[in-house]
Design goal:
The structure is a homodimer. Chain A has about 200 residues and is mainly alpha-helical. The first copy, chain A, is built from 8 helices and no strands.
DNA sequence: ACCTGAACACCGTTCAAGT
DNA sequence: ACCTGAACACCGTTCAAGT
């Protein structure tokens, strides 16, 4: 019943995660060093081993945390908008805001090299994308999808947003045109604001 | 006038690049070690320094090589197809073939951390995407774009393809549905095969 | 259970020296 | 010009030992 008895930090696992997130945010996953993280929070380099057996496990945990944060943002964006077409634009904007603000973390999340906890990462990713799926299923229920598969449309929108964020983050797409590009990308989904009606 | 006099390998730079590409292809950029590459081709670890001052410069050179290869594939796909709408599908398929077959290399190419040679990487990327731009400009010239900007459409298609490849490579999108997803994604561009006519 | 401290093999980078 | 060999600081991982 006693809350996790503090030794040095109350919760070493969370302290490691927080510091690691900060390093990834500033310098990228490639620069993440277990020894540096341990030193920064004042423990020896072998202490975090009880919580993260190796570097890969820490990276996986960071990916899960990233997907959880992303999922919250997408959920908020969906809930804050009224109906089907508006929600597509809202969730798309929220996605690009997160993916450009947390470029290094998102790059880590989508790195296709995950360890034994790969399933956990995959599950957290699916959970994060659930709001996006919900929007298209709502659109289908309202007969706005012209017979197209809501799951496939959601996957393609997701790909477009993730790809757009990647192009912006690596400098191929101009950052100051993100808004216009999102508008143009979103407009190409059935009955979104300014889609085929613009012809 | 004498061709680059061979010392140990005829061309150490190319030998390093070839070995490095092989390592990245098999194990990913994170596992790339300059010392291991040097040992594999039979020189000491400091020998490649004349060609690649540091690890970052080698990674940049690998990215340039990757974009060059990608550009060749896209160019071939465009040239092998007859007109505007068919070429979109051809270039999209070629892109996903390359990006899924060379997952590790593509991940390196789009990593947003490049060194002092960042401009060179950017220029090679632009050159690789030129065939894609050409297709949409051709479509515009034929009046098939409904007034939309060919450059923006090209960027959005590129984002969708790159995002799709990333989702497939990290396991979010099922690999056996790539064909269907490409069809669906491409169908949403003006006058592509099976686009709005399918309604 | 949680953490320390020493050890091992590996890495990127630097540099004086060879041919 | 091109390459060697030694050195330095750093890293991930392992493990016996402490409390």
């Amino acid at each position: 019943m006693t809350p996790a008895r503090p030794y040095h930090h109350g919760n070493l696992r969370q302290a490691v995660l927080d510091e690691a997130v900060a390093v990834v945010r500033e310098r990228g996953a490639a620069e993440l060093s277990l020894r540096e993280v341990a030193a920064a929070i004042g423990v020896t380099h072998a202490a975090p081993r009880r919580h993260f057996p190796g570097r890969q496990e820490l990276l996986d945990a960071l990916a899960v945390e990233g997907f959880t944060r992303l999922g919250v943002r997408l959920r908020e964006a969906v809930d804050a908008s009224p109906g089907y077409p508006a929600r597509i634009h809202a969730v798309a904007t929220a996605y690009l805001d997160f993916a450009t603000a947390e470029a290094n973390l998102v790059e880590l999340m989508f790195a296709h090299k995950h360890g034994a906890d790969g399933e956990a990462v995959g599950r957290s990713a699916e959970a994060a994308f659930a709001p996006l799926l919900q929007v298209f299923r709502q659109g289908e229920a309202e007969g706005l999808l012209a017979g197209r598969s809501p799951d496939r449309l959601a996957l393609i929108l997701l790909a477009t947003l993730q790809g757009l964020a990647g192009l912006v983050n690596c400098g191929v797409a101009p950052a100051d045109q993100v808004g216009v590009l999102v508008d143009e990308a979103v407009a190409r989904f059935p009955h979104a604001a300014g889609s085929s009606a613009a012809r």
